[in-house]
Amino acid sequence: MQVLRDTVRTLGTTARGGLVAATLVLVTVLLVGCGPVQSTQRISEAEVDFERARVVEAHEKAPYEYFSAKYYLHKAKEEWGYSDFEAAYDYARKAKQAARAAILKAKEDPWTGSPVDKAKTQEVEGAQKKQAESDTEAGPRGF
User: Fold this and answer.
1) Measured on CA atoms in the order 60, 64, 65, 68, is the torsion positive or negative?
2) Minimal CA–CA distance to 103: which of 61, 41, 71?
3) Which residues lie in Basic and acidic residues bias regions (predicted)?
């Protein structure tokens, strides 16, 4: 009877030990798999936000934020390709933040363009107006 009890205890301990070992292996596998999964998910989210920024024309209305998002996303994909999933996750997070900032800025505070571009446009319009006025003046031409 004592031998039977010892055998049951041994099996019970071994079974618990096997369960603990199996749990540790499962946790290890899940932790190893988290890097690629999380970084891939974050890159996908950043791509969606970047596309939304493109749709609201953030490249014209919020260029700094838009192009920051673009290049952070590019760098995230590059790091993911090198299997540096932590860096890929970080760059994708930055890309997502920049894309959201671009969307917000484009919707709330649209940038109508560079002041330099406006000055050039006014200069060209002024020159065209002067040309049109001189064309309407009477007098000989073509000499």
Assistant:
1) positive
2) 61
3) 117-133
Report field, pTM of the whole predicted structure over 0.85? no
pLDDT digits (tens, 9 = 90+) for 52-81: 999 999 998 899 999 999 999 999 999 999
Which pair of structure tokens corresponds to residue 37?
């999964």
pLDDT in tens, 73-97: 999 999 999 999 999 999 999 999 9
Residue 101 lies in a domain: yes
Q: Residue length, the chain?
A: 143
Q: Find the helix packing angle between 85-108 and 63-81, rounded to 10°.
A: 160
Name which of 30, 111, 102 is nearest 73 in CA terms.
102
Domain that holds residue 87: 30-130
SS3 120: helix
Residue 98 lies in a domain: yes
Q: DSSP secondary structure string, 17-50?
A: HHHHHHHHHHHHHHHHHHHHHHHHHHHHHHHHHH
DSSP code for 79: H
